[in-house]
Specification:
With 167 residues, the protein is an alpha+beta fold. It is built from six helices and eight strands; from the N terminus they run E-H-H-H-E-E-E-E-H-E-E-H-H-E. Strand 6 and strand 7 form a beta hairpin. The radius of gyration is 15 Å and the shape is globular.
Length: 167
């Protein structure tokens, strides 16, 4: 069941961080590295903290099954929480292609999400229509950078994946 979107609007310092992160050369620096930095921070803090949380984002650790390799892949991502559902925006920082985790979910929709130290099994599907707009608006309310990424990625549609707990 969908509930109310739960997120906190960014404070002044977080808005400043967001604006800096949206600058194209800075985005291009962090795009291939941020998930690695978050991964190591999660390891150092035993799964409690990421660097991305400084920006005020809700961070989840998404574990997918590789679409080609069949191997488990874990990626820290910004998420929008909607009751038991989770929305993930496949912006890939506005780069040319969708992120690998998107293709993994399309190929193998059963995934695991670790949030606040609890791991839950989910099933993913791609949002469209009004549901897409709902999660897109929730995403840009916590990170305006998604709009900048959408402009950079105007050659492609930025997908939104909705994760629902698997019964």
């Amino acid at each position: 069941m969908a509930g109310e979107m739960t997120h906190t609007k960014p404070n002044l310092i977080q808005k400043l961080i967001h604006r800096i992160v949206m600058i194209p050369p800075i985005t291009m620096f962090f795009a291939p590295r941020m998930h690695q930095m978050d991964f190591w921070m999660l390891k150092l803090t035993r799964g409690k903290y990421t660097l991305s949380e400084i920006g005020g984002w809700t961070i989840v650790q998404l574990t997918t099954t590789g679409s080609k390799s069949g191997q488990k892949r874990t990626m820290p991502l910004i998420a929008t929480v909607d009751g038991e559902r989770i929305g993930l925006i496949a912006s890939s920082f506005g780069r040319k292609n969708n992120p690998g985790w998107y293709y993994n979910l399309k190929s193998n929709p059963v995934c695991f999400v670790n949030r606040n130290g609890e791991t839950v099994c989910y099933e993913a599907r791609e949002a469209d229509g009004s549901e897409y707009e709902k999660y897109w608006q929730a995403g840009i309310s916590v990170f305006a950078g998604y709009d900048a990424y959408k402009k950079r990625a105007s050659h492609r549609h930025i997908p939104v994946m909705v994760l629902e707990p698997k019964e």
